[in-house]
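## retry 2 of 3
previous attempt timed out at serialization; input unchanged, resubmitting
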Amino acid sequence: QVQLQESGGGLVQAGGSLRLSCAASGRTFRMGWFRQAPGKEREFVARITWTGSTTSYADPVKGRFTISRDNAKNTMYLQMNNLKPEDTAVYYCAAQGSISSGWDYWGQGTQVTVSS
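## retry succeeded, writing output
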């Protein structure tokens, strides 16, 4: 069982930046970020393969967010630039436990609030 712990959330003004981190207690394969705004369903934000060679992003965050990982530290990051009020949400990290599985593990979430 792998545990995931997010950090780095907070309150920022529109146009500002935040960097989220997700520390894993063990090895994971593909990792990703999701978010859930009040009254909305959880949505995909970005994902990254185990090697970090392939990434993908949801359209609303393309060009503003960058996902990365450091396997030596079992940590994934999400650099968020030019934040907008509509980015306000609880951000969750998720991970695959095996190469063929779905999102097996989830963190508790970290709140990101962007003021206008």
